[in-house]
Write a structure and sequence with these properties.
The complex is a heterooctamer, with 2 copies of chain A (188 residues), 2 copies of chain B (365 residues), 2 copies of chain C (67 residues) and 2 copies of chain D (248 residues).
Chain A: E1 2-10, H1 15-28, E2 32-37, E3 47-55, E4 69-72, H2 75-81, E5 90-94, E6 108-112, H3 114-121, H4 127-139, H5 144-154, H6 160-187
Parallel strand pairs in A: 1-4, 4-5, 5-6
Antiparallel strand pairs in A: 1-3, 2-3
Helix pairs in contact in A: 1-5, 3-4, 3-6, 4-6
Chain B: E1 5-8, H1 9-19, E2 24-27, H2 35-43, E3 50-53, H3 57-69, E4 74-78, H4 80-85, H5 87-95, E5 100-106, H6 122-128, E6 137-139, H7 144-161, E7 164-170, H8 171-175, E8 177-180, E9 209-210, H9 217-237, E10 241-244, E11 251-254, H10 257-272, E12 277-282, E13 284-286, H11 290-297, E14 303-307, H12 313-321, E15 327-331, H13 340-356
Parallel strand pairs in B: 2-3, 2-4, 4-5, 5-7, 6-7, 11-12, 11-14, 14-15
Antiparallel strand pairs in B: 1-8, 6-13, 10-12
Helix pairs in contact in B: 1-2, 1-7, 3-5, 10-13, 11-12
Chain D: E1 3-5, H1 24-38, E2 44-48, E3 63-66, H2 72-82, E4 87-93, H3 94-100, H4 102-110, E5 116-121, H5 151-154, H6 160-165, E6 172-177, H7 181-199, E7 205-210, H8 214-217, H9 221-235, E8 239-242
Helix pairs in contact in D: 1-7, 3-4
Classes of the chains: A alpha/beta (188), B alpha/beta (365), C alpha+beta (67), D alpha/beta (248).
The complex binds thiamine diphosphate (2 copies), iron/sulfur cluster (SF4) (6 copies) and magnesium ion (2 copies).
Chain lengths: 188, 365, 67, 248, 248, 365, 67, 188
C-alpha cells in the first residue's frame, strides 16, 4: 500500500495542517508516513504545498513527483499539480475559489465547495477540513476516527468548539464526496 | 517517552540533543534548519539549559569552542553558507581536541544558492573544509528517527574522541516529519564522565589550557600525529554502513541520507523487474566504509554512486574500489531529487556499459 | 479634477491606502485578484484631491495618481 | 489629467515578493525616487543583502550585486573603490546589518567609505521566519525568544544609528520611520541626504528606517504600523544623529 | 625586611616573550593582581587572543583558553554560559578586538555578557610586524600605511570605549593608560572594577588600556611611553565612560 | 625590467599582480604572507591603484567580490586560518562566476597551528572548502620566479573562466628570496578586454546583476551544470605539470611546490646512487594532471607521493592511478621539510615493497 | 631600611625602572645577561625608600621590593 | 658547486642583511641562490637566523638542515647550530660575545672579534660585515667585489659614509680570517 498526496493552496488556507493530520492519522494506524512542506522565503499570501506519503513499506522520497492524489485549494495549485497526477489518480479541488473545470479524463475528479461550505459552517478557515473529509471518503487510506484523534496532537491549542467545528466540516466533506462519487459511478 | 511522535527532522535533532545531555546551544537562523534553534529556544530553558542566539555563525562556533573547552556538551547547527563561515572555528576545535556536535542541514550551493536539499557539502564535511590536517567524524542519517539517533550518538562519539562530530542532513531531512521514538532514557548530565582537561577553574590542580597553537615544529607535528592516530582509531572502531541485498547483486547503488531512500525505492522497483540491485549506504561518511566497498568490489560488480551533487562521495568510493570494479556516478543538483525511475534508467546503462567494457575498466563520469 | 488608478493585479490588499487617505475614499473590492487578494478601489472619485498620499503609502506602487 | 504620482524610473515594473503591507516596498520606492531625483540611475550600483530584500536586485533598474549575509558594506566598498564614479548603495535588514554584519558596517562607517547605506530595521529576522534580531525589543516574542526577549539573557536592543554616530568618520546618520505619510516624506528627505553626501564626496551616509513586518509580528499591516509608532519609536528615537556642513 | 612588592600569585613565574619595555607585561601583572585581590584565582578562566599576547595562556596561573583571532568575547561567552560560577576574562589587542573581532565585542557588550574584557590598544598590529590597526593614529606610519595613515583612505581611528559606551547594556567601561606610575595605579583600579561588576553579576566590564609597542613604533621603550602620552591620550581620552551604581 | 631581482616570494606575487593589471588589493595581516599587503600598500598608490586593509579576511574577500563584480582585476592574500574565513565568500565568488586571484601562503594547522610552511590546505583549495559544488583553479608555484609567473597567469585564467583562481604557496615560498625576472611587459589596464557583465553603471544597456541566488531548482541546476562544464574545460585546456625523467623510472615521486624542490634534490641523489627516479610535479592542482599520472601508471611503476601534510594530494594521485600501480605516501607536518635523505630512504622502501607485493596491489599508507 | 632585588636573568634592559625611580637610583649593568641584555642595578641602596614604583613599572616583574 | 649557510645571532645584529648580501652577490655572479629567514612572532632581542644556499644547480630546499657553514654571532646560536655543521664544514663565530670555545675537531673554526672590531671601527652594527668578510676569505664562494656591489641593492638607503664603514669592516674580517687560516694551516 502506497499513497502519495500533494496538498496545495494559498498560505493561510491550512494546507500544512491538512497534511500533518493525514500523516499523523496514518501513523496512528501503524503505517509508515512522511510529511514535507514546500519551504521557502516567508511570504504571506503566496502559495504553499506539502507532500504526504502513507505506506506499508519504508518510504523512499518524501518529495512526491507523481502523486496519487492532489488536493488543490486554489487555482494556481490546480494548474500546477493536476497534470502530475498518476493515471487513475484522484483530484479534489476547492470549487469555491476555482472557476475552471479540470480537463483530465483519466483521473477521478471531485469538486468541493470547500470555502463556501466552511463559511456556511461559520469559519472559512475550516475549508481545509471540508476538503480533507472529501479525501477521506474518496480514498479511505486512513479512517475518519484516526483523523479526528489526530486533531488534538496536531493542533494542541485548539478550543473544543473549534474542534467540533472542524469535525463537522470534515464530515460535511465526506458527505459531499460520497454524493459525487455516487454520481460519477452512476455516470460511468 | 517511547511513543511514536510525528516530528520534523530538525525538531528530532533538538530533542535528541537535550536527551543526550546537551544543555547549551549556540546558533544563528538559516533555512532550512531554523526549527533546531527554535526548538532549543523553547526547550532548553525548561531543562535548565541555555539557548543563545549568537550574532553570527562565527560567534556561534566560537561560543561552542568556549563551552566545549569548559567541559559542556554543546551543539550548534546551520546550513551550508553558515557552515562555511564556521570553517576556521571547526579547525580550531579539531586542533584543540574539543568534543562538540555540529549539524549541517545542507542546501543547494554554491554561494547563496538555494534552500532546497543538497549533498554538495560532502567534501567540506569529510575532507576538512577548514585549514590543516583535521577530520570531523561525520554521521549521515536518512530518516527522522536516524536524525534523532545520530544526534544522540554524535555526543557520545564526540566525547569518546574529543573531536567535533558533524551530523550531515539536508533540507528534506530537516523539514520532513516522520514518526520518531525516543527509546533510551535521557542522559543524566551530572552523571556524565568528568573531563579533567576542561577549563572549569583550577581548584586544587594545575591550570588547564585549551589551545591549538604550537610554534615549535616538534610540538605541532606531535599534535598532527596524535590526530592521525585518532582518525585511524575511528576507522577501526566506528565505521557504520547499511549493506542491503549485495550478495547476489548485479549492480550496487551507493548513496547516503535522503538520496539513499530514493535508491531504496529504485532498488525495489528494479528487483520487481528482475534486476538484482544491492545498496551500500554509508552512515559514517568519515570514517568512510571503504573496506566494505573494497570487499564487494572484489567480485567486479559495478557501482553506481548517486548523490545530490555533481560527484563528491564518488571519489571515496573510487578510492575504496581502487580500480577493482567500475564506478559510475549519477547526480542531480539545484534541489532536485532524482526519481526512482531516473535511477533505474541509470542502472540499466551501467549494466550495458559493463557488458561492453573490458573487465575492470572504469567509464568516465 | 483628480483621481487615482489602482493596478488591481499588483495590489496585495494590505489596506494601508484605505487607512491613509485623508478623505477615506478607498475601500476594498469584493472580488479577488488572481493572486487571491481583494484590491483597493476608489469609492468616490469626485472627492479625490489627487494628494497622492495613498500612492506614497502603498508598498506595492499599485496606485497612480492623476491631477 | 496628468500623472502626478507613479512608479519612479529606478524601480523595476515587476511585482515584488514582499508580504502584503510590508514597508520594504515603501522604502524601495523612496530609494528609487532619490536615485531618480539625483539623476544617477545610470551610474548607480546597488547591493542587495541576505534577508527579505535579497531579491532587491530584481527591483531596482540599476546594476546590482547580491552580497553574502552581512557583507554588503564590504561588497559596496569593493565596488566603490573599483568604480569611484559610481553611486553605490547597500540596502540591508537588521539581522544582516546589526548582527552578522556588525564589523562590516562599523568599519565601512569608520573608513568614511563613500557609500550610502539604507538600513531597514524591522526588529526581527523576516526572511527566515521571525527569529530574534539584535534590534528586537525587550519582551518582544519571536520564534527564538518564545517567552519574549529577556534583557538578562540577550541584553538590550542595539541602536545602530547612535552606535555609528559614536564614530568620527561618518558624514550623515539619521533614523526615520515609514509608519505614516508624514514620516514617509521625512524618510525620503533623509535618504536623499544620504545619497547627497556620497555624490558630493563628503563621506559615508546612513539612514536607519523603522519598518514593519506584519507577517512575523502577527499583526495586520495597519496594526503593524501602529506598533512601529507605539513600541519602536520610543526606543529608537527618530532624528539626524550626524550631519556634515552643507549636507543635503 | 619583608617583601612589599613582587610577582602576584596569578602570574606564572616564567619569562615572557614580550619585547623589552613592552607594556603588555605591566598589564598582565595588573590583571593578575586584580585576580589575586578578588580571591578568584581558582575559579578564573582567561581567554588569550591572537596577537602578541597569544601566549598569555602560559602566563596566567589559572585555566586558560586560546581563542581564534577576534573571537575571544564569543569564546568567553561560551565559557561563562557553561560555567556561570567562573570568573571569565578575555585579554585582547586592538587588531583582535577593534578590527576582526568587532562584531564579537559589540555583541558581547550588547548582551551584557558577564565577562571582563581587557583591551590592549597599542595602535598597531604588534605580532605580525607593525601593520595598521583601526586604532592607528592619523599620520602614523606602519608597514601597511607607509606614508602614514590617511584619513581620506582609511578613515579616522576607532575609539572602542566610546563606541561600546553607546550601547545600553554594558556595566563598566573605562579607558586607562600605563605610561607612567600614576597611570599604572589608575589602570589597576579600573581593571579591578571591571572584574567586580562581573563578580557582583552587574554585567559586562571593559577596560581599554593604552599600551606601547616600542618594536613596531621604532622607539626606545621610554620614548614609546612618551608617545602614548603625547599622541595617543589626546585622541583617546582617559576616563570612565560607563559605570553602574555600586561598581567598584 | 628584465634584470634579475632578488625578491621574496611574497614580494614577487605583489609585483607580478601589479604588472598583470591588478589595481585593487584587499587584505588583512597574517604571517607568513605579510609582505604581500605591505608591498601592495607601497606600490599600488604609485600606479594609481588602491590598497585597502580590510577589517578582516571576510571583509577582504567580500570587497574582492564587489570589485571583481565591478570588473576590476583584484587580489587578496592570506594564510591558512585567514583562508578558512574566506570560504563562504569564495563559494559566492564561484557561484556568481567572478574572476579574482586569491593567494594562500599555507602554514601549519589545524587551528592556530604554527607559522611554518605546510601543504595541509590542499583539500580545502582543490575540493572546495566552502559549501556547494564549486572549484577554484589552483596553481602551485615552486620557486619565487614561479610565484611571479603563476600570479600573472592567475589573472589571465581568472578572466578566461570567470572563476576564482588560487595561488597556493607556503610559508617557505613566501619568505624566501630568489632571483626573479619580469620578462613580459606590464599589462595595460585600459587595454584589457571589456567585461560586459560587470556592474559599472547601467548606461545605455540593461542592468547587470551579480548574483548566486537561484530559488528555482531549474535555475540553480543550470548554474551547477554551467560550472561543471567550465571545470571540464579547465581539465581539457589548462592542466599543467612538470614531468622529469619518468621514462625509465623505477619509482616516480609526486610532489608540488616547496616539497617538489626537495624531491628534486632527492632524485638527483638517487640517480647518482644508480636509482632511476622520476618526478611528476603538478603545477595546476585543480585541474589535476590525472591523465599524465594514469598514463605513467600503465607501466606499473610505483609512485611515492610526498607532501607537507598527512596525505591529501595522494588521494588525487590514487584516483588517477586507479589501482594500476602502487601508490605510497610520505608526509611531514608541523613545519618540518623532509630532507632528501628521508625521501631517499622512503623510495628504497617503496622499491622493496614493490618487489614483494603482487603486481597492482596498493600498500596501505 | 628598604631595597630592591632585580632578577638579572629576567630583566630585558628596557630601562623603564631607570626612568621611573623617583630618586634615580637605578642604572644598567655593564654586563650582558645570557639573553644579551644589560640589566638593571640599584646604584645607591641606602637611599631606596622601597616605594616600589620601579617594580610596578617593570614589564617583566623582574624587581622585588623589600621594606 | 653547492654551499649551504646558516647565519644566526640576536635580532638587531644584522643577521638578515648578511644573508641577503651573500645571496645577492651569488646572484650577481650568476649562481642559483636562495635566502630564507627564520620567521616568527615579532620579538626584539630574540634570536634570528637565516639560511643561504648558493649553487650551480637548481636549489632544492631553501631551508638548510646540515650547513656547510655556520656563522654564529652569539652564544645561543653557536650552541644551536654548530652541531649540525657537515664534517669538514666551517664555523665562524663572534668571539666578542661568545666566551666558550667550540669543541668540534672535524670542522674549520674561525673566531672573529666581530663586535669588538666593529666598535673599534666606530659602529658596533658593522659586526656583521666583519664576520661576513671572514666568511668570504675562508670560503671564497662569492667574491668581495660582488658583495660590495650588492650593498647598494640590499640597503638602498645607506649613506656613503656607512657604506665605506661597512666595506672597511668587511675587509677587516677578511684580514682576520686570512691570518687565522694561515695559523691553522701551519698548525695542522
Ligand atoms: C551566512 C548566512 N547566515 C544566515 C543566513 C540565513 N538568513 C537569510 S535572511 C536572514 C536574516 C534576515 O533578517 P534581516 O536582515 O533582519 O532582514 P529582513 O528579512 O527582516 O528584512 C538570515 C539569517 C544566510 N543566508 N547566510
Ligand atoms: C584569522 C587570522 N587572521 C590573522 C591572523 C594573524 N594575526 C596574528 S596576530 C594579529 C594581530 C595582532 O594585533 P593586535 O591584536 O593589535 O595585538 P598586538 O600584537 O598588537 O598585541 C594578526 C592579524 C591570525 N592569526 N588569524
Ligand atoms: S489621492 Fe489623496 S484623496 Fe485621492 S484617494 Fe489618494 S489619498 Fe485619497
Ligand atoms: S496600499 Fe497598495 S497594495 Fe495596499 S491595498 Fe492599497 S493599493 Fe493595494
Ligand atoms: S516576512 Fe516581514 S519583512 Fe519579510 S516581506 Fe514579509 S512582512 Fe516584509
Ligand atoms: S611587538 Fe610590540 S606589542 Fe608585541 S611584544 Fe613587541 S613591543 Fe610588545
Ligand atoms: S623602590 Fe622606589 S626608591 Fe627604591 S629603587 Fe624602586 S623606585 Fe627607586
Ligand atoms: S624595568 Fe624591569 S626589565 Fe626593564 S630594565 Fe628595569 S628591571 Fe629590567
Ligand atoms: Mg529584519
Ligand atoms: Mg595591537
Amino acid at each position: 500500500m502506497l499513497e502519495e498526496i500533494i496538498i496545495a493552496g494559498f498560505g493561510g488556507q491550512g494546507i500544512m495542517v491538512m497534511g500533518r493530520l493525514l500523516a499523523h492519522a496514518g501513523m496512528v494506524e501503524g503505517r509508515n508516513v512522511s510529511w514535507i512542506p514546500s519551504y521557502g522565503p516567508e511570504m504571506r499570501g503566496g502559495t504553499a504545498n506539502c507532500c504526504v506519503v502513507i505506506s506499508s513499506d519504508p518510504i523512499g522520497s518524501p518529495v512526491v513527483a507523481e502523486p496519487d492524489t492532489v488536493i488543490a485549494m486554489n487555482r494556481p495549485s490546480l494548474e500546477k499539480f493536476a497534470p502530475s497526477i498518476k493515471p487513475s489518480g484522484l483530484l479534489i479541488y476547492n470549487s469555491s475559489l476555482i472557476d475552471i473545470v479540470p480537463e483530465r479524463q483519466d483521473i477521478t475528479v471531485i469538486a468541493v465547495r470547500a470555502s463556501g461550505i466552511a463559511s456556511e459552517l461559520g469559519d472559512i478557515r475550516a475549508a481545509n477540513m471540508v476538503a480533507l473529509g472529501a479525501y477521506l471518503r474518496a480514498r479511505g487510506v486512513v479512517s475518519r476516527e484516526a483523523v479526528v484523534d489526530s486533531i488534538r496532537a496536531v493542533m494542541p491549542k485548539l478550543s473544543q468548539s473549534l474542534i467540533d467545528l472542524n469535525v463537522k466540516a470534515l464530515d460535511k466533506g465526506m458527505d459531499i464526496a460520497g454524493d459525487q462519487l455516487m454520481i460519477s459511478e452512476s455516470i460511468s | 517517552m517511547s511513543e511514536r511522535l510525528l516530528m520534523k527532522g530538525n525538531e528530532a535533532v533538538g530533542e535528541a540533543a537535550i536527551r543526550a545531555g546537551c544543555r547549551l546551544f549556540f546558533g544563528y537562523p538559516i533555512t532550512p534548519q531554523n526549527e533546531i534553534p527554535e526548538y532549543m529556544s523553547r526547550r532548553l530553558p525548561e531543562v535548565g539549559g541555555v539557548f543563545l542566539q549568537a550574532e553570527s555563525e562565527i560567534a556561534a562556533i566560537n561560543m561552542v569552542y568556549g563551552a566545549a573547552g569548559a567541559g559542556a556538551r554543546v551543539m550548534t547547527s546551520s546550513s551550508s553558507p553558515g557552515i562555511s563561515l564556521k570553517m576556521e572555528g571547526i579547525s580550531y576545535i579539531a586542533g584543540a581536541e574539543l568534543p562538540c556536535v555540529i549539524v549541517n542541514m545542507v542546501r543547494g550551493g554554491p554561494g547563496l544558492g538555494g534552500i532546497q536539499p543538497a549533498q554538495s557539502d560532502y567534501f567540506q564535511a569529510t575532507k576538512g573544509g577548514g585549514h590543516g590536517d583535521y577530520r570531523m567524524l561525520v554521521l549521515a542519517p536518512a530518516s527522522v528517527q536516524e536524525m534523532a539517533d545520530c544526534t544522540a550518538d554524535a555526543f557520545e562519539l564526540a566525547d569518546k574522541y574529543r573531536n567535533p562530530v558533524m551530523v550531515l542532513g539536508d533540507g528534506a531531512l530537516g523539514q520532513m516529519m516522520e514518526p520518531v521514538t525516543f527509546s533510551k532514557p535521557p542522559v543524566s548530565v551530572s552523571e556524565l564522565p568528568p573531563k579533567p582537561w576542561a577549563t572549569t577553574g583550577a581548584r586544587g590542580r594545575a591550570p588547564n589550557i585549551v589551545n591549538s597553537l604550537h610554534l615549535e615544529n616538534e610540538e605541532l607535528e606531535k599534535l598532527n600525529l596524535r590526530l592521525e592516530a585518532k582518525y585511524r582509531r575511528m576507522k577501526s572502531e566506528d565505521v557504520r554502513a547499511e549493506v542491503i541485498d549485495c550478495d547476489d547483486a548485479d549492480v550496487i547503488l551507493v548513496a547516503y541520507g535522503t538520496m539513499s531512500r530514493v535508491c531504496r525505492s529504485a532498488a525495489n522497483m528494479a528487483r520487481s523487474a528482475g534486476l538484482r540491485v544491492g545498496i551500500v549506504r554509508p552512515i559514517t561518511l568519515f570514517p568512510f566504509p571503504s573496506e566494505i566497498l573494497s570487499e564487494l568490489a572484489k567480485k567486479g560488480v559495478p557501482f553506481l554512486v548517486v548523490e545530490l551533487s555533481l560527484g563528491q562521495m564518488v571519489e571515496d568510493v573510487k578510492l575504496a574500489v581502487n580500480g577493482a570494479s567500475p564506478v559510475q556516478f549519477y547526480g542531480r543538483t539545484g534541489g532536485f531529487l532524482p526519481t526512482p525511475k531516473e535511477i533505474l534508467a541509470r542502472m540499466e546503462s551501467v549494466l550495458k556499459d559493463r557488458s561492453q567494457a573490458p573487465c575492470g575498466a572504469v567509464p568516465e563520469r | 479634477m483628480a483621481g487615482i488608478k489602482v493596478d488591481g493585479e499588483r495590489c496585495k490588499g494590505c489596506e494601508l491606502c484605505v487607512a491613509f487617505c485623508p478623505r477615506s475614499l478607498i475601500s476594498m473590492s469584493k472580488q479577488f485578484n488572481s493572486r487571491g487578494y481583494r484590491y483597493a478601489e476608489l469609492t468616490d472619485p469626485e472627492r479625490c484631491t489627487g494628494c497622492a498620499i495613498c500612492g506614497r503609502g502603498c508598498p506595492d506602487v499599485a496606485i497612480e495618481v492623476y491631477r | 489629467m496628468t500623472r502626478v504620482f507613479g512608479r519612479p524610473a529606478a524601480l523595476a515594473d515587476v511585482p515584488t515578493h514582499y508580504c502584503p503591507g510590508c514597508t520594504h516596498g515603501i522604502i524601495h520606492r523612496l530609494v528609487a525616487e532619490a536615485i531618480d531625483e539625483a539623476g544617477v540611475l545610470d551610474r548607480a550600483v546597488g547591493v542587495a543583502p541576505v534577508g527579505c530584500s535579497v531579491l532587491a536586485y530584481n527591483y531596482f533598474n540599476c546594476d546590482m550585486q547580491q552580497a553574502a549575509h552581512g557583507r554588503a558594506p564590504a561588497v559596496a566598498t569593493g565596488i566603490k573603490r573599483a568604480r569611484p564614479e559610481c553611486v553605490v548603495f547597500s540596502y540591508q535588514g537588521d539581522g544582516d546589518l546589526a548582527s552578522i554584519g556588525t564589523a562590516e558596517i562599523i568599519h565601512a562607517a569608520a573608513r568614511g567609505e563613500r557609500i550610502t547605506v539604507i538600513f531597514v530595521n524591522n526588529a526581527i529576522y523576516g526572511m527566515t521566519g521571525g527569529q530574534m534580531a539584535p534590534t528586537t525589543l525587550v519582551g518582544q516574542k519571536t520564534t527564538t525568544s518564545p517567552r519574549g526577549r529577556d534583557a538578562a539573557l540577550a541584553g538590550y536592543p542595539v541602536r545602530m544609528a547612535e552606535l555609528l554616530a559614536a564614530l568620527e568618520s561618518p558624514a550623515y546618520i539619521a533614523r526615520v520611520s515609514v509608519h505614516n505619510p508624514a514620516n514617509i516624506n521625512r524618510a525620503k528627505r533623509a535618504i536623499q541626504k544620504a545619497f547627497e553626501v556620497q555624490i558630493k564626496d563628503q563621506g559615508f551616509g546612513f539612514v536607519e528606517v523603522l519598518s514593519s513586518c506584519p507577517t512575523n509580528w502577527g499583526l495586520a499591516p495597519i496594526e503593524a504600523l501602529k506598533w512601529v509608532e507605539e513600541h519602536m519609536i520610543p526606543y529608537y528615537p527618530l532624528g539626524e544623529f550626524k550631519t556634515v556642513e552643507g549636507a543635503g
